[in-house]
Amino acid sequence: MKVQINGRYAYQTDLVDIEVGDEMLLPGSMSSDSWTGTVTALEPEYDAPCRRALGVTRRRTQVEAENKALAEVRITGWRGGETFAKACANCGKDREYVVKEVNRTGRPTSVGPMACDCGAPAHGAYLGSAAAFRHFVTNLES
């Protein structure tokens, strides 16, 4: 079966349960590492031989749920000193974080954690983009 990735690339796969919206791991070129792309069509009209996809990294339902969670994160209108809660990386309980610095739009560029009952180390984060802040708040990998 062939699949179309990101609306322009065709790859071969032996997987039969692929859906539009699934994210696949794809081989890189000789000068680049593997990469991920989203299935945008099943059985594209491309007739020539295709490289083989390496596998599925995330299913459509997981991609949609993560995109929804990321979209719900407020990224502007913050002020220094405001707090928000997110799961502690050590124990999973809510841990308070303080916004230390914001940019001109009020997007946090630096945050620091409050103490956690589990004794997790207090490491802050510098966040260079809205995507980095969204991923930090939701604990999703970027």
Put the structure in a nutshell:
Helices cover 15% and strands 34% of the residues.
- For the biggest β-sheet, the strand order reads 5-2-1-4-3-6
Main beta-sheet strand count, sense and barrel state:
6 strands, mixed
Identify low-pLDDT runs: none
Give the proportion of residues in helices: 10-25%
From the N-terminal CA to the C-terminal CA, the straight-line distance is 29 Å
Chain-averaged pLDDT: 90
Q: Helices and strands, in N-to-C order?
A: EEEEEEHEEEEH
SS field, number of helical segments: 2
Domain count: 2
By DSSP, the count of extended strands is 10
Give the percentage of residues in beta strands: 25-35%
Radius of gyration: 20 Å
Descriptive overview:
The protein is α+β, with helices and mostly antiparallel strands and 142 residues long. The protein folds into two domains: 2-66, no CATH class; 83-138, no CATH class. The protein is 15% helix and 34% strand. The chain is built from two helices and ten strands, in the order E-E-E-E-E-E-H-E-E-E-E-H. It has helices at 60-71, 130-138; strands spanning 2-5, 9-12, 23-26, 35-42, 51-52, 55-58, 83-87, 94-102, 108-113, 125-126. The strands form two sheets. The chain has a six-stranded mixed beta sheet. It has a four-stranded antiparallel beta sheet with strand order 7-8-9-10, covered by helices on one side. The longest helix has 12 residues, at 60-71. The mean pLDDT is 90.
